User: What shape does this take?
Amino acid sequence: MQIRIESRHLGDVAVLASEVFEDERGFFMEVYRADQYEALGLPTEFVQDNHSRSKRGVLRGLHFQWDPPMGKLMRVTYGSAFLVAVDIRKGSPTLGRWFGVEVSAKDKKQVWAPAGFARGFCAVSDFAEVQYKCTGIYNPKGESGILWNDPKIGIQWPVKGPELSGKDRQAQTLDEWLASPASNHFQFPKS
Assistant: This one.
């Protein structure tokens, strides 16, 4: 079964689509195959799987981790959610730009966002479950977040007045992140 990159955004963010076999019993699909991911230029080593359930209007993010660097392969397995990635790499031509797409359990798409991108999502169905594979083990001392509604980024979230965690409500702005020494962990590669 074939996995393909449907579209690319901000240089390194990819929307993936998988071939799906469906009949009257349900469906079957391959979500991850190391050989196909390698051929597509995507990572093949994921060390942690996470699963989140949120009610409509819950917004989680924008989260990122630099120690160890963590990329995320995200998919919605129940309901639908608006998935977002923001480029936070110093020197990147797309620094501060965002990409967002609504993904659902029905369309079965995935979004890959590597380390150097802050990621978040909001539930747009009554409930949404988001599962994501991570390229790094979670480390609370090497992670942070960007304020979900930072006006410098200008994400057009599909909800007004989302429900947030205290941590996400108090996250730093992109400018505050870029002024911190930790931001030097995400440098855009010079050619």
